[in-house]
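May I ask for a sample protein chain and its fold as tokens?
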Amino acid sequence: MGQLIQQLINGLTLGSVYGLIALGYTMVYGIIGMINFAHGDIYMIAAIIAVTVLTLLGSLGIMAVPVALLITLVVAIIFTSVYGWSVERIAYRPLRNASRLAPLISAIGMSIFLQNMVQLTQGARVKPINALLPGGFELFTSNGFTVHLAYTQIMIIVVTAVLLAVFTWLITKTSFGRQQRACEQDRTMTALLGINVDRTISMTFVIGAALAAVAGVMVTVYYGVVDFSIGFLAGIKAFTAAVLGGIGSLPGAMLGGLIIGMIESFWSAYLSPEYKDVATFVLLILVLMFRPSGLLGRPEVEKV
């Protein structure tokens, strides 16, 4: 029972990170109907920025954890927002009226460019940091196994829940959310009604990049080590989470992330950790076979 509860906590933490990244995927898909395959690399850039800023703050003697985290988060969001805006302007906007294959190839090219840019400028070695939030709570002990709940895990789960609530409200209750949904339904009619479609799409990319920045900072604090290659696999798994939960659905993206986090955690603990990714993608195949719209997605209705 103790190990079961521990893996449940670990799965919730990992799934929260995947869910945050998946929110960016599903927001972009919901407004332009395309997948931003450079999104995982935006997350990786945020993690690299977090390591750089935390190291710089430590050298300046700024050791207060709340202050260091706040500064790191603000800097990471600013830089990744610029990257997100640039990806939309360079890789998507010029190809918005092209066939679906063209922006897909462009996004993959942008992903490769960002990954290699970080490798060349920051090096290929892993970048560690000292533990920023060590310690936690010992919940209980069962048969000699002690269940731990780390402070970083609490931070990740709470921040993810708050951000999901905030962005659900943003999309469903605000003027910007109505503009997003209008662009999703018909961009031409939306423009005729006086809504700036380009600005709405750019802001969606910026918001998605900001969510990836939060995930990147939290992963840096949680694991304490990052490198230039973490964005690819995390991005693929977050995309899988978005598809699993129902692409275009914010609660679905978070649900998909939590399911994948649970699968990886329990599979690694009770079976073979080498095959945890296989289990994740087999589940994706099964969902696409029997429920192509995802767990919380709605089937698309073709207009005639």
User: Anything to note?
Assistant: The radius of gyration is 20 Å. Residues 120 and 216 are 20 Å apart (CA to CA). The mean pLDDT is 87. Strands lie at 127-128, 136-142, 145-150, 225-226.
